[in-house]
Amino acid sequence: MDPIAQSKNRLQKTNFLDQGSEDWFKVLEHCLELNPNNAAALRIKSIWFTKTGDYVNAYSLLNRAVELDPFEALVYRGWLKLYKLHDYFGALNDFEKIISITKSGTRLKFFEDIYYLMGLTRMQLAQYKEAITAFDMSIQRIYKYQTQLEDLVYILVDKAICQLELGAYEDSLGTLEQALEVNGNTPECYYQKANALIHLGKKSEAKKFYIKALKLASQGKIRFNPYKDFFNQLYIEEISEKLDAK
Amino acid sequence: MLQYYQAGTCYSGGLRKIKQHFFSNVTPELSFGDSGYLTIRFIVHEDGTITIVDILHCSKEFRPFRFNDNLVDELILCLHQLGRWNPGTVQNQPIKSMKYLTFIIQNGLVVDIVPK
């Protein structure tokens, strides 16, 4: 077997080893000895450095991977820039490249829909109208392909937050109703609904939704990821503070 | 050693509380104007106390870099002031785990903290 194929085969072994363990590193090093241009091995190795906060090493490996296999590595690099480094212009650049490479933007394994990621990035840049367009695109794709359905409710919540930022409070409430149809046990929906109602001067109605959000949050329904906080991550304390203030 | 996300290591009140603490306690270092990413890696012991393992400096272009020592010292001090963490657990038993905080710094100011 030629070294390139050997390197590719050997990389499969990392799936059965603890990420970051001595054996895991040994397998990766062997893959890269066999084929220093194994983009997947470079990308996988970079993930470990990212997960431990070593961005100099992570980035150097990832940039090499991007040169060798733009598609796979660009998605991850864009994701990294968005969530971990808050380099929003850099993330946008990578996501736009992915969309141009794949024409309509491919459906991604392991990541959120590319248009959802684009929307989140635009949102962080306070480009709310563009964010809404991207979220709408993502919603269409999720319905069309029936994948990443678990994100749907949060895409709608993020869209509603953008509408709130634009002062479109009624639109925001409409979007949150759609979100509640997707999942009626989402504290983030009730929390944002209450925020929209506050803007509309409906304080007593808002209070009911803050209470509902708090109840669901206390039941552990807040969106949670052990690795990172989401944008607009909701905290129980935040809801309590709103209730105390109103 | 397990990483924080594998063991459930966390700070009571989460990143929100961590940010509140750092944003209200770190003195702006306007005179230095450094930008980039500063990561403090530390062990969270079984009793929730911490030991700093290393500090990684990264420029905004993701190259090796060195932040101003005063800023680094202040961040370390603030980290210790946070007090005890909730240790990671395995089968309900507290364990030692690795945790890090990355400070996103623009022109000498901490503008954000990741990951959790």
Structure characteristics:
heterodimer, A: 246 residues, mainly alpha, Serine Threonine Protein Phosphatase 5, Tetratricopeptide repeat, 3 domains, 13 helices, B: 116 residues, alpha+beta, 5-stranded mixed beta sheet, two-stranded antiparallel ribbon, 3 helices
Task: Note the total helix count of chain B.
Answer: 3
Q: Please compute the radius of gyration of chain A using only Cα atoms.
A: 21 Å
Give the name of the CATH architecture of the largest domain in chain A.
Alpha Horseshoe
* Average pLDDT over all residues of chain B: 92
What ranges of chain B have pLDDT less than 50 throughout 5 or more consecutive residues? none
Q: Using CB atoms under 8 Å apart, which protein chain pair has the greatest interface? A: A-B, 24 and 28 residues
Helical element count of chain A?
A: 13
- Assign an overall shape of chain B: globular
Strand content of chain B: 35-45%
Oligomeric state as shown: heterodimer
Number of strands of chain A: 0
What is the N-to-C succession of helices and strands of chain A? HHHHHHHHHHHHH
> Span between N and C termini of chain A?
70 Å
Fraction of residues in β-strands of chain A:
under 5%
Main sheet characteristics of chain B = 5 strands, mixed
List the helices and strands and how they pair.
The complex is a heterodimer of chains A (246) and B (116).
Chain A lengths: L2 H9 L10 H13 L4 H13 L3 H14 L1 H16 L2 H14 L12 H11 L3 H18 L6 H14 L3 H14 L4 H13 L3 H16 L17 H10 L1
Helix pairs in contact in A: 1-2, 2-3, 3-4, 3-5, 4-5, 5-6, 6-7, 7-8, 8-9, 9-10, 9-11, 10-11, 11-12, 12-13
Chain B lengths: L1 E2 H4 L6 H12 L10 E9 L5 E10 L9 H13 L6 E3 L2 E3 L1 E10 L2 E6 L2
Parallel strand pairs in B: 1-6
Antiparallel strand pairs in B: 2-3, 2-6, 4-5, 6-7
What does this structure look like?
The complex is a heterodimer of chains A (246) and B (116). Chain A has 13 helices and no strands. Chain A has helices at 3-11, 22-34, 39-51, 55-68, 70-85, 88-101, 114-124, 128-145, 152-165, 169-182, 187-199, 203-218, 236-245. The longest helix of chain A has 18 residues, at 128-145. Chain A folds into three domains: 1-68, Serine Threonine Protein Phosphatase 5, Tetratricopeptide repeat (Alpha Horseshoe), CATH 1.25.40; 74-147; 171-246, Tetratricopeptide repeat domain (Serine Threonine Protein Phosphatase 5, Tetratricopeptide repeat), CATH 1.25.40. Chain A is mainly alpha-helical. Chain A starts with a helix and ends with a helix. Chain A is elongated and about 70 Å long. In chain A, helix 5 (70-85) runs antiparallel to helix 6 (88-101), helix 9 (152-165) packs antiparallel against helix 10 (169-182) and helix 11 (187-199) packs antiparallel against helix 12. Chain B has 116 residues and is an alpha+beta fold. Chain B has one domain (2-109). Chain B is built from three helices and seven strands; from the N terminus they run βααββαββββ. In chain B, strands 1, 2, 3, 6 and 7 form a five-stranded mixed beta sheet that branches. The model of chain B has no long low-confidence stretch (mean pLDDT 92). The A-B interface holds A 20, 51-56, 58-60, 83-87, 225-229, 233, 235, 237-238 and B 3-6, 8, 13-17, 37, 39, 41, 56, 58, 60, 62-64, 98, 100-102, 104, 112, 114-116.
